[in-house]
Amino acid sequence: MKKREKLEIIRKYYPNALTTIDFINKIIDYVEENLDLEPGQIMYADSICSDDVNSIQYPVRANEFLGPFKMGGLDGFPFTGLTGMQAFASHVPDDGAVFIYYGPHIGISKEGKIGEINRFGQMHASSCCGAAHGALSKLQNNDILPGHITEMDYQMNTIEQILYHQKDKILNAEIPLYETTEIIYESIDKRIEELVSATQYNCRYIILVGAVLINSDSDIGSFSSTKKFDVIHLKNGTRENLLPLINSF
């Protein structure tokens, strides 16, 4: 299947989606041409789901950055918290930048079915993101108790509580899993911004990219729908919104 055919499937749900390969290439082009930095001067962190498919499908070229530092747990929520962010910030080259890519993920099969993919070596489709599916199912069955967070399943319970507070919006949505993913993105974005504000960085730039990471079948690959592309210039305290740069591709 050609790239344009793959994009046609994904863009029915996410009109600005790029292949993750094209996405990473654009980020690297930007930092080299506009920030005058090489990838080896940039400490990379991601806050994406710990699902193995994200490691399998993520572009090899991302390895040109330093890292990655792993901030995300189930469906990408930054469960490493302030300690993780501060540790990551202390690893960055003084004359370089930090690059944080964050957001939930969702599956779209080559048949265009949202919420599932065919994984390597499996004959039948499986859910993606499984945590989002599970939390949504509990929400639909009224099985989430307000404030219920356990030590045994802390991450899943946190995702459940995020959905519980937006119950009506999710259950009334045309595609509840799509809306679930949007709400989880908003929670991740809010927390990342809080963590960045509470952290001291001794470098030149902070690059924040919030997105929905989209997985497809093993022979199709992955895609990224960017929602935020901000560059914070630490020396003068300014912040640029560069989302149009990504969406112009």
Tell me what you see in this structure:
- This protein has 249 residues and is of the alpha/beta class.
- The protein contains 9 helices and 10 strands.
- Strand 2 (42-47), helix 3 (52-57) and strand 3 form a beta-alpha-beta unit.
- Helix 5 (130-140) crosses helix 6 (154-164).
- The longest helix has 22 residues, at 176-197.
- The two termini are 20 Å apart.
- It comes from Flavobacterium endoglycinae.
Helix content: 25-40%
Q: What is the helix tally?
A: 9
Average pLDDT reading: 95
> Major sheet, described briefly?
8 strands, mixed
Radius of gyration: 18 Å
Shape: globular
Share of residues in strands: 15-25%
DSSP summary, beta strand count: 10
**Low-confidence runs of at least 5 consecutive residues:** none
Q: Spell the H/E element sequence.
A: HEHEHEHEEEEHHHHEEEH
N- to C-terminal separation?
Answer: 20 Å
Helix/strand-derived class? alpha/beta
Pfam families: LCIB_C_CA (PF18599)
Protein name: Limiting CO2-inducible protein B/C beta carbonyic anhydrase domain-containing protein
Organism: Flavobacterium endoglycinae
